[in-house]
Amino acid sequence: MFDLFIQRIRQRDYRRLLGLMMASKVVGVIIVLLAIKAITAYLFTPAFADEAPAEPPAYINPINTMWTVIAAFLVFFMQAGFMMLEAGFARTRETVNVLLEGIVDTCLCGILFWAWGFAFMFGSGNGFIGHQYFFLQGTPETYGSTGVAFLAYWLFQFAFADTCSTITSGAMVGRTGFVGDLIYSFGVSGFIYPIIGHWAWGPDGWLTTIKPIPFHDFAGSTVVHTIGGFIALAGAIALGPRLGRKFKRDGGAPMPGHDMTIAAVGGVILWFGWYGFNPGSTLSAMDAAGCGRVAANTTLAACAGGLATLAFMYPRNKVWDACMTVNGFLAGLVAITCPCYWVSPFGAVMIGAIAGVVVVLAVDLVEWIRVDDPVGAVAVHGACGIWGTLSLGLFACGKYGASGPTGPDNSEGSVVTGLFYGGGMGTLVSQAIGSAAITAATFAASMVLMYAVKATGTLRVSKDGELEGLDQHEHGGGAYPEIVLGGAAAVAEPPPPVAQAAVHAPAE
Protein backbone atom coordinates (compact mmCIF):
# COMPACT_ATOMS: atom_id res chain seq x y z
CA MET A 1 0.00 0.00 0.00
CA PHE A 2 2.95 2.32 0.73
CA ASP A 3 4.44 1.58 -2.73
CA LEU A 4 1.10 2.48 -4.35
CA PHE A 5 1.08 5.79 -2.48
CA ILE A 6 4.68 6.54 -3.67
CA GLN A 7 3.67 5.81 -7.26
CA ARG A 8 0.65 8.10 -7.09
CA ILE A 9 2.48 10.93 -5.33
CA ARG A 10 4.83 11.11 -8.31
CA GLN A 11 1.88 11.93 -10.54
CA ARG A 12 1.29 15.67 -10.93
CA ASP A 13 -2.52 15.45 -11.06
CA TYR A 14 -2.63 13.30 -7.92
CA ARG A 15 -0.38 15.74 -6.05
CA ARG A 16 -2.67 18.61 -7.06
CA LEU A 17 -5.77 16.69 -5.95
CA LEU A 18 -4.17 15.77 -2.63
CA GLY A 19 -3.16 19.38 -2.06
CA LEU A 20 -6.67 20.62 -2.72
CA MET A 21 -8.12 18.05 -0.34
CA MET A 22 -5.73 19.01 2.45
CA ALA A 23 -6.32 22.71 1.88
CA SER A 24 -10.09 22.25 1.94
CA LYS A 25 -9.88 20.34 5.23
CA VAL A 26 -7.74 23.05 6.80
CA VAL A 27 -10.16 25.72 5.60
CA GLY A 28 -13.09 23.69 6.92
CA VAL A 29 -11.50 23.33 10.34
CA ILE A 30 -10.80 27.08 10.44
CA ILE A 31 -14.42 27.85 9.51
CA VAL A 32 -15.75 25.52 12.22
CA LEU A 33 -13.43 27.08 14.82
CA LEU A 34 -14.50 30.57 13.81
CA ALA A 35 -18.17 29.54 14.00
CA ILE A 36 -17.68 28.07 17.47
CA LYS A 37 -15.93 31.26 18.54
CA ALA A 38 -18.72 33.43 17.16
CA ILE A 39 -21.50 31.34 18.72
CA THR A 40 -19.86 31.21 22.13
CA ALA A 41 -19.13 34.92 21.99
CA TYR A 42 -22.87 35.53 21.51
CA LEU A 43 -24.43 32.83 23.65
CA PHE A 44 -21.86 32.06 26.30
CA THR A 45 -20.42 35.35 27.48
CA PRO A 46 -21.85 37.23 30.40
CA ALA A 47 -24.34 39.89 29.45
CA PHE A 48 -24.11 43.13 31.35
CA ALA A 49 -20.61 42.28 32.57
CA ASP A 50 -20.50 45.38 34.72
CA GLU A 51 -23.53 43.99 36.57
CA ALA A 52 -22.14 40.47 37.04
CA PRO A 53 -23.15 38.88 40.36
CA ALA A 54 -20.76 39.29 43.25
CA GLU A 55 -18.73 36.38 44.53
CA PRO A 56 -20.83 34.28 46.90
CA PRO A 57 -20.01 34.35 50.59
CA ALA A 58 -18.03 31.47 52.01
CA TYR A 59 -20.38 31.15 54.98
CA ILE A 60 -23.31 28.73 54.65
CA ASN A 61 -26.31 29.93 56.62
CA PRO A 62 -27.57 26.73 58.33
CA ILE A 63 -31.04 28.09 59.15
CA ASN A 64 -31.73 29.29 55.61
CA THR A 65 -30.28 26.11 54.16
CA MET A 66 -32.50 23.85 56.26
CA TRP A 67 -35.53 26.03 55.47
CA THR A 68 -34.79 25.63 51.75
CA VAL A 69 -34.29 21.87 52.08
CA ILE A 70 -37.58 21.42 53.94
CA ALA A 71 -39.35 23.55 51.32
CA ALA A 72 -37.79 21.35 48.61
CA PHE A 73 -39.27 18.28 50.31
CA LEU A 74 -42.72 19.90 50.30
CA VAL A 75 -42.47 20.84 46.62
CA PHE A 76 -41.29 17.35 45.75
CA PHE A 77 -44.28 15.88 47.62
CA MET A 78 -46.48 17.75 45.12
CA GLN A 79 -45.63 14.95 42.70
CA ALA A 80 -47.88 12.67 44.75
CA GLY A 81 -50.63 15.27 44.44
CA PHE A 82 -50.22 15.57 40.69
CA MET A 83 -50.26 11.81 40.24
CA MET A 84 -53.45 11.43 42.28
CA LEU A 85 -55.17 14.41 40.68
CA GLU A 86 -54.40 13.29 37.13
CA ALA A 87 -55.20 9.65 37.87
CA GLY A 88 -58.57 10.62 39.34
CA PHE A 89 -59.45 12.74 36.32
CA ALA A 90 -58.35 9.93 33.98
CA ARG A 91 -60.23 6.73 33.19
CA THR A 92 -59.54 3.44 34.96
CA ARG A 93 -57.80 2.00 31.91
CA GLU A 94 -55.03 4.65 31.92
CA THR A 95 -54.33 4.98 35.65
CA VAL A 96 -51.06 3.02 35.68
CA ASN A 97 -49.88 5.07 32.72
CA VAL A 98 -50.47 8.31 34.64
CA LEU A 99 -48.64 7.00 37.71
CA LEU A 100 -45.64 5.64 35.82
CA GLU A 101 -45.29 8.79 33.73
CA GLY A 102 -45.10 10.83 36.94
CA ILE A 103 -42.42 8.56 38.37
CA VAL A 104 -40.30 8.34 35.23
CA ASP A 105 -40.61 12.07 34.44
CA THR A 106 -39.25 12.76 37.93
CA CYS A 107 -36.30 10.42 37.47
CA LEU A 108 -35.51 11.79 34.02
CA CYS A 109 -35.82 15.40 35.14
CA GLY A 110 -33.41 14.81 38.04
CA ILE A 111 -30.67 13.47 35.77
CA LEU A 112 -31.15 16.18 33.14
CA PHE A 113 -31.21 18.97 35.73
CA TRP A 114 -27.97 17.61 37.17
CA ALA A 115 -26.29 17.30 33.77
CA TRP A 116 -27.15 20.60 32.12
CA GLY A 117 -30.62 21.90 33.04
CA PHE A 118 -29.44 23.77 36.12
CA ALA A 119 -26.48 25.15 34.17
CA PHE A 120 -28.73 26.52 31.42
CA MET A 121 -31.13 28.06 33.93
CA PHE A 122 -29.06 29.29 36.87
CA GLY A 123 -25.51 29.48 35.56
CA SER A 124 -24.10 32.83 34.53
CA GLY A 125 -24.00 33.33 30.77
CA ASN A 126 -25.91 36.00 28.93
CA GLY A 127 -29.49 37.21 28.88
CA PHE A 128 -30.75 34.04 27.17
CA ILE A 129 -28.83 31.05 28.50
CA GLY A 130 -26.40 30.09 31.25
CA HIS A 131 -23.27 28.00 30.89
CA GLN A 132 -21.91 27.33 34.37
CA TYR A 133 -22.12 24.27 36.61
CA PHE A 134 -22.61 21.52 34.00
CA PHE A 135 -22.83 18.20 35.87
CA LEU A 136 -22.62 20.37 39.02
CA GLN A 137 -18.91 20.89 38.45
CA GLY A 138 -17.10 23.96 39.75
CA THR A 139 -19.86 24.90 42.16
CA PRO A 140 -19.20 27.34 45.03
CA GLU A 141 -20.19 26.79 48.64
CA THR A 142 -23.44 28.74 48.30
CA TYR A 143 -25.60 29.88 45.41
CA GLY A 144 -25.01 33.58 44.82
CA SER A 145 -25.49 35.74 47.89
CA THR A 146 -28.32 33.63 49.33
CA GLY A 147 -26.22 31.92 51.99
CA VAL A 148 -28.01 28.68 51.02
CA ALA A 149 -25.76 25.68 50.41
CA PHE A 150 -25.42 25.17 46.68
CA LEU A 151 -26.76 21.63 46.52
CA ALA A 152 -29.72 22.57 48.73
CA TYR A 153 -30.57 25.27 46.20
CA TRP A 154 -30.16 22.75 43.36
CA LEU A 155 -32.57 20.36 45.10
CA PHE A 156 -35.16 23.11 45.56
CA GLN A 157 -34.98 24.13 41.91
CA PHE A 158 -35.06 20.53 40.69
CA ALA A 159 -38.41 20.13 42.45
CA PHE A 160 -39.70 23.16 40.53
CA ALA A 161 -38.46 21.78 37.21
CA ASP A 162 -40.14 18.47 37.94
CA THR A 163 -43.42 20.29 38.59
CA CYS A 164 -43.33 21.94 35.16
CA SER A 165 -42.83 18.61 33.40
CA THR A 166 -45.70 17.01 35.33
CA ILE A 167 -48.10 19.85 34.47
CA THR A 168 -47.58 19.02 30.80
CA SER A 169 -48.63 15.38 31.10
CA GLY A 170 -52.06 16.30 32.52
CA ALA A 171 -53.40 17.60 29.21
CA MET A 172 -52.03 14.57 27.34
CA VAL A 173 -53.67 11.84 29.41
CA GLY A 174 -55.22 8.82 27.73
CA ARG A 175 -53.55 8.74 24.32
CA THR A 176 -49.83 9.51 24.66
CA GLY A 177 -47.38 6.73 23.89
CA PHE A 178 -44.92 6.06 26.70
CA VAL A 179 -41.87 6.40 24.41
CA GLY A 180 -43.26 9.68 23.09
CA ASP A 181 -43.70 10.87 26.66
CA LEU A 182 -40.05 10.16 27.40
CA ILE A 183 -38.91 12.03 24.30
CA TYR A 184 -40.93 15.19 24.89
CA SER A 185 -40.08 15.13 28.61
CA PHE A 186 -36.41 15.11 27.60
CA GLY A 187 -37.03 18.26 25.56
CA VAL A 188 -39.08 19.97 28.28
CA SER A 189 -36.83 19.27 31.28
CA GLY A 190 -33.57 19.47 29.38
CA PHE A 191 -34.12 22.52 27.20
CA ILE A 192 -37.44 24.42 27.11
CA TYR A 193 -37.96 24.94 30.83
CA PRO A 194 -34.36 25.75 31.86
CA ILE A 195 -33.50 27.96 28.87
CA ILE A 196 -36.67 30.05 28.90
CA GLY A 197 -36.70 30.03 32.70
CA HIS A 198 -33.22 31.60 32.64
CA TRP A 199 -34.73 34.74 31.12
CA ALA A 200 -36.60 35.50 34.36
CA TRP A 201 -34.67 33.67 37.08
CA GLY A 202 -31.13 33.40 35.77
CA PRO A 203 -28.48 35.62 37.38
CA ASP A 204 -28.28 37.67 34.16
CA GLY A 205 -31.60 36.90 32.45
CA TRP A 206 -32.78 39.64 30.13
CA LEU A 207 -36.17 40.04 31.81
CA THR A 208 -34.45 40.98 35.06
CA THR A 209 -32.94 44.02 33.35
CA ILE A 210 -36.09 45.60 31.88
CA LYS A 211 -35.99 49.33 32.56
CA PRO A 212 -37.17 51.15 34.56
CA ILE A 213 -38.82 48.27 36.46
CA PRO A 214 -37.64 44.67 36.02
CA PHE A 215 -39.93 41.69 35.58
CA HIS A 216 -40.91 39.93 38.81
CA ASP A 217 -42.04 36.35 39.39
CA PHE A 218 -41.57 35.43 43.02
CA ALA A 219 -42.31 31.69 42.90
CA GLY A 220 -43.24 30.85 39.32
CA SER A 221 -46.69 31.83 38.01
CA THR A 222 -44.87 32.39 34.72
CA VAL A 223 -41.66 30.40 34.98
CA VAL A 224 -43.28 27.18 36.20
CA HIS A 225 -47.02 27.38 35.54
CA THR A 226 -47.34 29.37 32.32
CA ILE A 227 -44.49 27.43 30.76
CA GLY A 228 -46.04 24.12 31.86
CA GLY A 229 -49.52 25.17 30.78
CA PHE A 230 -48.54 26.18 27.27
CA ILE A 231 -46.36 23.13 26.73
CA ALA A 232 -49.48 21.19 27.72
CA LEU A 233 -51.52 23.14 25.15
CA ALA A 234 -49.03 22.35 22.39
CA GLY A 235 -49.04 18.68 23.35
CA ALA A 236 -52.83 18.45 23.38
CA ILE A 237 -53.04 20.13 19.97
CA ALA A 238 -50.42 17.84 18.45
CA LEU A 239 -52.09 14.73 19.87
CA GLY A 240 -55.67 15.57 19.01
CA PRO A 241 -58.63 14.48 21.18
CA ARG A 242 -59.12 11.04 22.67
CA LEU A 243 -61.18 8.57 20.67
CA GLY A 244 -64.85 9.15 21.38
CA ARG A 245 -64.30 12.65 22.79
CA LYS A 246 -67.14 14.88 21.59
CA PHE A 247 -67.00 18.57 22.42
CA LYS A 248 -69.85 20.71 23.75
CA ARG A 249 -70.22 22.74 20.57
CA ASP A 250 -70.72 19.44 18.75
CA GLY A 251 -73.35 18.24 21.18
CA GLY A 252 -71.04 16.31 23.50
CA ALA A 253 -69.49 16.77 26.94
CA PRO A 254 -66.18 16.12 28.72
CA MET A 255 -65.39 12.54 29.62
CA PRO A 256 -65.76 12.13 33.40
CA GLY A 257 -62.83 11.00 35.50
CA HIS A 258 -63.05 7.67 37.25
CA ASP A 259 -62.36 8.67 40.87
CA MET A 260 -63.09 12.10 42.32
CA THR A 261 -61.93 10.87 45.74
CA ILE A 262 -58.29 10.57 44.77
CA ALA A 263 -58.56 13.63 42.50
CA ALA A 264 -59.78 15.83 45.37
CA VAL A 265 -57.22 14.42 47.81
CA GLY A 266 -54.53 14.98 45.19
CA GLY A 267 -55.62 18.59 44.85
CA VAL A 268 -55.37 19.15 48.61
CA ILE A 269 -51.91 17.54 48.64
CA LEU A 270 -50.90 20.07 45.99
CA TRP A 271 -52.25 22.85 48.21
CA PHE A 272 -50.12 21.52 51.07
CA GLY A 273 -47.05 21.34 48.82
CA TRP A 274 -47.60 24.95 47.79
CA TYR A 275 -46.43 25.97 51.27
CA GLY A 276 -43.01 24.86 50.11
CA PHE A 277 -43.47 26.37 46.68
CA ASN A 278 -44.29 29.93 47.81
CA PRO A 279 -42.90 30.54 51.32
CA GLY A 280 -39.86 28.44 50.42
CA SER A 281 -39.02 30.83 47.59
CA THR A 282 -37.92 33.38 50.18
CA LEU A 283 -34.85 31.11 50.60
CA SER A 284 -34.62 32.74 54.00
CA ALA A 285 -36.07 31.68 57.32
CA MET A 286 -34.57 34.91 58.64
CA ASP A 287 -37.29 36.80 56.74
CA ALA A 288 -39.91 35.52 59.16
CA ALA A 289 -42.43 38.24 58.38
CA GLY A 290 -42.12 37.59 54.65
CA CYS A 291 -42.57 33.82 55.10
CA GLY A 292 -45.68 34.35 57.18
CA ARG A 293 -47.16 36.86 54.75
CA VAL A 294 -46.53 34.59 51.75
CA ALA A 295 -48.09 31.59 53.52
CA ALA A 296 -51.15 33.59 54.52
CA ASN A 297 -51.59 35.05 51.03
CA THR A 298 -51.25 31.57 49.53
CA THR A 299 -54.00 30.28 51.80
CA LEU A 300 -56.37 33.17 51.16
CA ALA A 301 -55.99 33.02 47.38
CA ALA A 302 -56.71 29.29 47.36
CA CYS A 303 -59.80 29.73 49.53
CA ALA A 304 -61.11 32.60 47.41
CA GLY A 305 -60.44 30.68 44.20
CA GLY A 306 -62.33 27.60 45.34
CA LEU A 307 -65.36 29.54 46.55
CA ALA A 308 -65.46 31.78 43.47
CA THR A 309 -65.47 28.78 41.14
CA LEU A 310 -68.13 26.99 43.17
CA ALA A 311 -70.39 30.06 43.11
CA PHE A 312 -69.71 30.81 39.44
CA MET A 313 -70.51 27.26 38.34
CA TYR A 314 -73.78 26.79 40.22
CA PRO A 315 -76.01 29.07 38.07
CA ARG A 316 -74.67 27.39 34.93
CA ASN A 317 -75.62 23.80 35.69
CA LYS A 318 -77.56 23.95 39.02
CA VAL A 319 -75.17 21.59 40.79
CA TRP A 320 -72.29 22.13 43.22
CA ASP A 321 -69.39 21.03 41.01
CA ALA A 322 -66.64 19.22 42.94
CA CYS A 323 -64.36 18.78 39.94
CA MET A 324 -64.32 22.47 39.03
CA THR A 325 -64.02 23.53 42.66
CA VAL A 326 -60.76 21.56 42.96
CA ASN A 327 -59.49 23.34 39.87
CA GLY A 328 -60.76 26.60 41.37
CA PHE A 329 -58.56 26.50 44.46
CA LEU A 330 -55.65 25.31 42.30
CA ALA A 331 -56.27 28.32 40.05
CA GLY A 332 -56.03 30.60 43.08
CA LEU A 333 -52.77 28.94 44.09
CA VAL A 334 -51.28 29.31 40.60
CA ALA A 335 -52.28 32.97 40.40
CA ILE A 336 -50.87 33.98 43.80
CA THR A 337 -47.54 32.25 43.12
CA CYS A 338 -46.07 35.29 41.34
CA PRO A 339 -47.25 38.18 43.55
CA CYS A 340 -47.46 36.42 46.94
CA TYR A 341 -44.58 38.37 48.53
CA TRP A 342 -45.70 41.84 47.44
CA VAL A 343 -49.48 41.90 47.98
CA SER A 344 -51.67 42.36 51.05
CA PRO A 345 -54.18 39.77 52.28
CA PHE A 346 -56.95 41.76 50.59
CA GLY A 347 -55.03 41.64 47.32
CA ALA A 348 -54.56 37.88 47.71
CA VAL A 349 -58.32 37.36 48.14
CA MET A 350 -59.07 39.43 45.04
CA ILE A 351 -56.41 37.69 42.96
CA GLY A 352 -57.68 34.25 44.00
CA ALA A 353 -61.33 35.11 43.43
CA ILE A 354 -60.66 36.43 39.93
CA ALA A 355 -58.59 33.32 39.18
CA GLY A 356 -61.58 31.20 40.20
CA VAL A 357 -63.60 32.80 37.42
CA VAL A 358 -60.73 32.89 34.92
CA VAL A 359 -60.25 29.12 35.18
CA VAL A 360 -63.89 28.43 34.27
CA LEU A 361 -63.78 30.77 31.28
CA ALA A 362 -60.47 29.27 30.17
CA VAL A 363 -61.89 25.74 30.38
CA ASP A 364 -64.77 26.94 28.19
CA LEU A 365 -62.33 28.42 25.68
CA VAL A 366 -60.21 25.27 25.51
CA GLU A 367 -63.39 23.23 24.99
CA TRP A 368 -64.64 25.65 22.30
CA ILE A 369 -61.43 25.38 20.24
CA ARG A 370 -61.80 21.58 20.47
CA VAL A 371 -58.69 20.87 22.50
CA ASP A 372 -59.00 17.80 24.72
CA ASP A 373 -57.47 18.60 28.13
CA PRO A 374 -58.70 15.95 30.59
CA VAL A 375 -57.50 17.65 33.78
CA GLY A 376 -57.77 21.35 32.84
CA ALA A 377 -54.00 21.91 32.87
CA VAL A 378 -54.10 24.63 30.21
CA ALA A 379 -56.77 26.62 32.06
CA VAL A 380 -55.39 26.18 35.59
CA HIS A 381 -51.70 26.64 34.88
CA GLY A 382 -51.57 28.49 31.56
CA ALA A 383 -54.42 31.00 31.82
CA CYS A 384 -54.21 31.56 35.58
CA GLY A 385 -50.43 31.74 35.41
CA ILE A 386 -50.81 34.70 33.04
CA TRP A 387 -53.42 36.31 35.28
CA GLY A 388 -51.24 35.88 38.36
CA THR A 389 -48.26 37.45 36.62
CA LEU A 390 -50.27 40.47 35.49
CA SER A 391 -51.98 40.81 38.87
CA LEU A 392 -48.72 41.93 40.46
CA GLY A 393 -48.85 45.06 38.32
CA LEU A 394 -52.29 45.80 39.78
CA PHE A 395 -52.22 44.66 43.41
CA ALA A 396 -48.60 45.08 44.62
CA CYS A 397 -49.23 47.22 47.69
CA GLY A 398 -46.03 49.25 47.72
CA LYS A 399 -44.80 48.09 51.15
CA TYR A 400 -42.45 45.23 50.38
CA GLY A 401 -39.21 44.88 48.46
CA ALA A 402 -37.17 41.68 48.39
CA SER A 403 -36.44 38.81 50.72
CA GLY A 404 -32.82 38.60 51.83
CA PRO A 405 -30.59 36.11 53.66
CA THR A 406 -30.66 38.14 56.86
CA GLY A 407 -34.12 39.67 56.53
CA PRO A 408 -36.32 41.66 54.16
CA ASP A 409 -35.04 44.53 52.04
CA ASN A 410 -37.82 47.12 52.01
CA SER A 411 -35.67 50.04 50.92
CA GLU A 412 -37.23 52.59 48.61
CA GLY A 413 -35.59 51.33 45.43
CA SER A 414 -36.69 47.71 45.87
CA VAL A 415 -40.35 48.15 46.88
CA VAL A 416 -42.85 46.92 44.26
CA THR A 417 -46.00 49.00 43.72
CA GLY A 418 -48.93 48.21 41.43
CA LEU A 419 -51.40 50.39 39.55
CA PHE A 420 -54.14 50.21 42.19
CA TYR A 421 -51.75 51.45 44.87
CA GLY A 422 -50.40 54.47 43.03
CA GLY A 423 -47.49 52.80 41.27
CA GLY A 424 -48.53 53.72 37.73
CA MET A 425 -48.24 51.43 34.72
CA GLY A 426 -44.54 50.60 35.01
CA THR A 427 -44.83 47.31 36.89
CA LEU A 428 -47.84 46.19 34.86
CA VAL A 429 -46.03 46.86 31.58
CA SER A 430 -42.95 44.91 32.68
CA GLN A 431 -45.14 42.01 33.80
CA ALA A 432 -46.98 42.03 30.48
CA ILE A 433 -43.71 42.03 28.51
CA GLY A 434 -42.30 39.14 30.51
CA SER A 435 -45.49 37.08 30.40
CA ALA A 436 -45.98 37.63 26.66
CA ALA A 437 -42.36 36.83 25.79
CA ILE A 438 -42.24 33.62 27.82
CA THR A 439 -45.70 32.49 26.72
CA ALA A 440 -44.97 33.03 23.02
CA ALA A 441 -41.51 31.46 23.13
CA THR A 442 -42.74 28.47 25.12
CA PHE A 443 -45.68 27.78 22.83
CA ALA A 444 -43.57 28.12 19.66
CA ALA A 445 -40.78 25.88 20.94
CA SER A 446 -43.28 23.35 22.28
CA MET A 447 -45.17 23.10 19.00
CA VAL A 448 -41.90 22.36 17.22
CA LEU A 449 -41.01 19.77 19.86
CA MET A 450 -44.40 18.03 19.88
CA TYR A 451 -44.73 17.85 16.12
CA ALA A 452 -41.15 16.58 15.87
CA VAL A 453 -42.00 13.80 18.31
CA LYS A 454 -45.22 13.18 16.41
CA ALA A 455 -43.19 12.73 13.21
CA THR A 456 -41.37 9.81 14.85
CA GLY A 457 -44.68 8.00 15.29
CA THR A 458 -44.25 7.68 19.06
CA LEU A 459 -46.33 10.57 20.39
CA ARG A 460 -49.71 8.85 20.18
CA VAL A 461 -50.56 5.20 20.64
CA SER A 462 -52.34 3.29 17.93
CA LYS A 463 -56.12 3.24 17.72
CA ASP A 464 -56.21 -0.35 18.91
CA GLY A 465 -53.89 0.48 21.80
CA GLU A 466 -56.05 3.41 22.89
CA LEU A 467 -59.23 1.32 22.72
CA GLU A 468 -57.58 -1.44 24.71
CA GLY A 469 -56.38 1.10 27.27
CA LEU A 470 -52.89 2.41 27.90
CA ASP A 471 -52.46 0.33 31.03
CA GLN A 472 -52.90 -2.96 29.20
CA HIS A 473 -51.32 -1.86 25.92
CA GLU A 474 -48.25 -0.06 27.30
CA HIS A 475 -47.72 -1.59 30.73
CA GLY A 476 -49.25 -5.06 30.67
CA GLY A 477 -51.81 -4.58 33.41
CA GLY A 478 -54.20 -2.16 35.06
CA ALA A 479 -54.41 -0.43 38.41
CA TYR A 480 -57.64 -2.29 39.21
CA PRO A 481 -57.14 -5.94 38.22
CA GLU A 482 -60.52 -6.96 39.61
CA ILE A 483 -62.26 -4.82 37.00
CA VAL A 484 -62.78 -6.28 33.56
CA LEU A 485 -61.16 -3.67 31.37
CA GLY A 486 -63.37 -2.62 28.50
CA GLY A 487 -66.53 -3.66 30.30
CA ALA A 488 -68.61 -2.62 33.24
CA ALA A 489 -68.66 -5.93 35.09
CA ALA A 490 -66.55 -6.44 38.18
CA VAL A 491 -64.99 -9.79 38.95
CA ALA A 492 -65.60 -10.69 42.57
CA GLU A 493 -64.98 -13.87 44.48
CA PRO A 494 -68.19 -15.77 45.36
CA PRO A 495 -69.45 -15.26 48.89
CA PRO A 496 -68.76 -17.98 51.41
CA PRO A 497 -71.35 -20.78 51.57
CA VAL A 498 -72.79 -19.68 54.92
CA ALA A 499 -73.39 -16.15 53.74
CA GLN A 500 -74.81 -17.46 50.49
CA ALA A 501 -77.29 -19.69 52.36
CA ALA A 502 -78.31 -16.79 54.54
CA VAL A 503 -79.08 -14.71 51.52
CA HIS A 504 -81.41 -17.31 50.03
CA ALA A 505 -83.04 -18.42 53.30
CA PRO A 506 -86.76 -17.71 53.57
CA ALA A 507 -87.78 -14.95 55.90
CA GLU A 508 -89.25 -16.11 59.19
Describe the protein.
Helix content is 62%, strand content 1%. It is mostly helical and 508 residues long. It folds into two domains: 2-43; 49-465, Ammonium transporter AmtB like domains (Ammonium transporter fold, Orthogonal Bundle), CATH 1.10.3430. α3 (62-89) packs parallel to α5 and α6 (178-201) packs antiparallel against α13. The longest helix has 32 residues, at 12-43. The N and C termini lie far apart (108 Å).
Brief summary:
The chain is mainly alpha-helical and 508 residues long.
CATH architecture identity of the largest domain: Orthogonal Bundle
Mean pLDDT: 88
Instruction: Sketch the major β-sheet.
Output: 2 strands, antiparallel
The CATH superfamily title of the largest domain: Ammonium transporter AmtB like domains
Class based on secondary structure composition and strand pairing:
mainly alpha
Question: How many strands appear in the DSSP assignment?
Answer: 2
Gross morphology:
globular
Order of helices and strands: HHHHHHHHHHHHEEHHHH
- Percent helix, as a range, is 55-70%
Uncertain residue segments: 39-54, 485-495, 497-508
**Measured distance between first and last alpha carbons:** 108 Å
